[in-house]
Design brief:
Number of helices of chain B: 25
Helix content of chain B: over 70%
Shape of chain A: elongated
Order of helices and strands of chain B: HHEEHHHHHHHHHHHHHHEEHHHHHHHHH
CATH architecture of chain A: Orthogonal Bundle
Oligomer: heterodimer
Largest interface: A-B, 13 and 11 residues
CATH topology of chain A: Helix Hairpins
Helix content of chain A: over 70%
CATH class of chain A: Mainly Alpha
Number of domains of chain B: 2
Radius of gyration of chain A: 17 Å
Structural class of chain A: mainly alpha
Number of strands of chain A: 0
Distance between the termini of chain B: 76 Å
Strand content of chain A: under 5%
Strand order of the largest sheet of chain B: 1-2
Largest sheet of chain A: none
């Protein structure tokens, strides 16, 4: 498989994530879409790393995964707390900062 | 050795100010020992410096402060201790020291003692900084600091509305003078830089543009009319600070503060700063005879004008306040009249009166404080018969009164401090009158001397003799208060004998600075016997008049002292000066005309037309439209971010990266 295949898969996943981010209303789905976008970037990093014989990219991807895990934990914790207060995680209803 | 520590003269009281302010509550008697020790230190250093530099040296220290736009227009901070400064330094620190000690007793029952001692300590520091400044800008800064302390201390009992109002009045009225003074500095700076730029005058390397010595060196090169303007503006500052007509009104009102404050600030030190300013810049005044004439007339007129009001006041401190205004008038008169005929010697005459006045007037105020402490009222009509109960206070006050009235024995040269100092002023005025053919200042001076004697003995007889007019059991003040009285009384009695040495020392002041002052030469004849005797004669005459009226009650005063008598009414109402100041200038001019029209322009034109209709409404409309962009929907924001990134990528691609 050539590098372009990996990049193509990565681009497809990124686009799916971006599309979901824009269209979805549920907080959990939006978090999942963000995960998709992050992981597409990870695929890019690992692919370049392996084709360039340079391990820096893989180390970077590991970092990114670890940070994504932390981010997901915080994000879900926020959503759980929001749900307790508002009884919903539909982001359309969470708009108190709106004019 | 002492001169290396000259900066400590100012810094010690500053340190005491900080420490007393923060730690005073935890220390005995409100932290009073701190300022006392610090000011004693200042006094010792001043005395040490005096012994070091006497008779013909000066101390000069200068530190670079900031650079100016052009060569030689920078500023410095510096110390200049010449004969003029060193006598002031000793007087200020010594009188301040005694008053601080006295205040331990006088303020014993006041809960706000730490604040009191902190503020008087800061005041002393500022006053000492005025005295030893070597440039006019630093002088001005310290001068303003002195004004602030005066404001704080007049309003020390700020919960009393009259005290708060008096503090405000003092600040605003002296401010008029301060603005004139600042304008004078600006005009001076402008003229100095003009003569430096044109190359007619070169600043010596290491000298700064606003240093006194540079100013004096540049005098011949500055345009005479400009010099007159500068000196008149400086004199405006002095008029404000020294309570000269027409800015005298704040000083009697300033008596709302504690009596110790009146003694320190409004008798001995701060109010003399104006005289000191004129003395300090005397070479400039000497080069502008028109200004000297103004100084002489304002001083002479104030001396007489204030003395007339002193005659009728019933508040013991007000009498003394008008007396202070009047005596400051004498000092100005001396600079103006004698300055025009005998040159630099006039500074000696004026400063000698300044210093002997500081001793006996501080003493008078402290005695008044002792009386008020005992009787609990300021009104001399409620006192009387105190001599038996307060022997020390009564005796020291009598000495001070004799000094103020200038009583002494002519020809034998024995007398109180005021006898020597006032005689010299009146003789100077006479010499001026002979040379210039202008007797008006002389007449002012002699009449004022008569009135001075009458009002001060009226005060003394009404307070200490006769029968008691109130029920209160008064008693002598504690030793911490009477001992400073006795020390000051010694100076009020014997300081006069320092006269000739003092004159000779002060006369060298401007020679040391390298300034030559033209003195009038010619008939240096001894004035006629009558002229020498006249000041003493009017002094004794005043004493006898007061004795007859207020002690023996030989005249029925009820006809004079009634609201039917227009002269009495005019004097009691202080020539309607407070009314003119408050109602006409304050309310009608400032509030009704200026402030109201300002409000009209602000509210109706600027707010109404411009802001509400044009700027305000347009901003609101734009804001209403634009805030629709903030939908509060996360997806919209995310779309815009993604769109933006996409656009960026496309642009970069087009750019060929």
């Amino acid at each position: 498989m050539s590098l372009y295949t990996y990049l193509l898969i990565s681009a497809i996943i990124f686009t799916i994530g971006a599309y979901g981010l824009i269209t979805q209303r549920s907080g959990i789905k939006i978090l999942m879409c963000i995960e998709l976008m992050l992981n597409s970037a990870n695929i890019n990093l690992v692919a370049f790393s392996s084709f360039n014989n340079n391990s820096t990219g893989q180390v970077f991807a590991l970092f990114s995964i670890a940070i994504a895990a932390a981010e997901a934990a915080i994000g879900f914790a926020i959503l759980v707390a929001l749900f307790r207060v508002k009884d919903t995680i539909n982001l359309d209803n969470i708009n108190i900062l709106r004019w | 050795m002492f001169s290396d520590y000259a900066a400590l003269i100012v810094l010690l009281p500053v340190l005491a100010f900080v420490l007393t302010l923060f730690l005073g509550k935890k220390l005995p008697s409100g932290g009073a020992p701190l300022p006392i020790v610090a000011i004693a230190g200042s006094f010792i250093i001043s005395l040490g410096i005096f012994l070091e530099i006497y008779p013909d040296k000066t101390v000069q220290q200068s530190w670079y402060w900031f650079a100016g736009m052009n060569q030689g227009t920078g500023m410095n901070l510096g110390i200049l201790i010449d004969p003029l400064a060193v006598v002031m330094l000793m007087m200020v620190s010594f009188v301040s020291l005694l008053i601080h000690i006295y205040a331990v007793g006088y303020m014993a029952h006041d809960p706000a003692k730490p604040r009191y001692f902190a503020e008087t300590s800061l005041f002393t520091a500022a006053m000492l900084a005025v005295v030893l400044s070597d440039n006019i800008l630093q002088f001005f800064i310290a001068w303003e600091l002195v004004g602030v302390c005066s404001y704080l201390l007049i309003g020390f009992w700020y919960h009393k509305p009259s005290a708060a109002a008096a503090a405000k009045k003092a600040f605003l009225v002296t401010r008029i003078g301060d603005v004139l003074f600042l304008a004078g500095i600006v005009v001076l700076y402008f003229n100095m830089s003009k003569v430096i730029e044109s190359g007619t005058f070169n600043l010596e390397p290491g000298n700064f543009i606003l240093q006194f010595k540079s100013m004096f060196e540049a005098i011949p090169y500055i345009d005479k009319r400009q010099l007159t303007i500068i000196t008149l503006l400086f004199f405006g500052g002095a008029v404000g600070k020294s309570g000269q007509f027409p800015l005298h009104g704040w000083l009697p009102d300033a008596m709302e503060g504690p009596t110790t404050v009146s003694a320190l600030i409004h008798a001995a030190t701060m109010v003399t700063a104006g005289v000191y300013l004129v003395a300090r810049t005397f070479p400039m005044f000497a080069a502008a005879p028109d200004s000297l004439l103004v100084v002489a007339y304002i001083g002479g007129f104030t001396a007489l004008f204030a003395a007339t009001m002193g005659l009728v006041m019933n508040d013991i401190k007000r009498v003394l306040a008008y007396s202070t205004v009047s005596q400051l008038g004498y000092m100005m008169l001396a600079l103006g009249t004698a300055g025009a005929v005998v040159g630099a010697k006039a500074v000696g005459i004026s400063m000698f009166h300044l210093i002997s006045h500081a001793f006996f007037k501080a003493l008078l105020f402290l005695c008044a404080g002792s009386v008020i402490h005992a009787v609990g009222t300021n009104d001399i009509r409620e006192m009387g018969g105190l001599f038996g109960k307060m022997k020390i206070t009564a005796t020291t006050m009598l000495i001070a009164a004799l000094a103020l009235a200038g009583i002494g024995i002519p020809f034998l040269n024995v007398g109180t401090a005021g006898f020597f100092s006032k005689d010299a002023i009146i003789e100077g005025a006479f010499e001026y009158a002979e040379v210039k053919g202008d007797f008006i200042p002389y007449i002012f001076a002699v009449l004022a001397a008569l009135l001075t004697s009458i009002y001060i003995f009226r005060l003394w007889f009404m307070a200490f003799t006769g029968s008691p007019r109130s029920e209160r059991h008064s008693h002598e003040s504690p030793g911490v208060m009477t001992r400073p009285l006795m020390i000051l009384a010694v100076f009020a009695l014997f300081f006069g004998f320092a006269q000739s040495g003092f004159y000779n020392y002060l006369e060298t002041n401007f020679e040391l600075a390298g300034v030559e002052l033209a003195a009038h030469e010619g008939e240096a004849s001894h004035p006629p016997v009558m002229i020498v005797l006249l000041p003493v004669i009017v002094g004794v005459l005043g004493f006898l008049i007061s004795y007859a009226i207020y002690h023996r009650r030989m005249l029925d005063m009820s006809k004079f002292v009634s609201s039917q008598n227009p002269v009495y009414k005019l004097l009691l109402n202080r020539y309607y000066e407070p009314k003119i100041g408050a109602d006409i200038i304050g309310v009608k001019l400032t509030h009704d005309i200026t402030a109201q029209s300002g409000e009209f322009v602000d509210r109706k034109i600027i707010d109404g037309l411009v802001i509400d209709n044009v700027i305000g409404s347009t901003t609101f409309k734009i804001g209403n439209t634009v805030r629709k962009l903030q939908t509060g929907v996360v997806q919209n924001y995310a779309s815009i971010v993604i769109l933006g990134v996409a656009l960026l990528v496309i642009l970069l691609k087009l750019g060929g990266v």
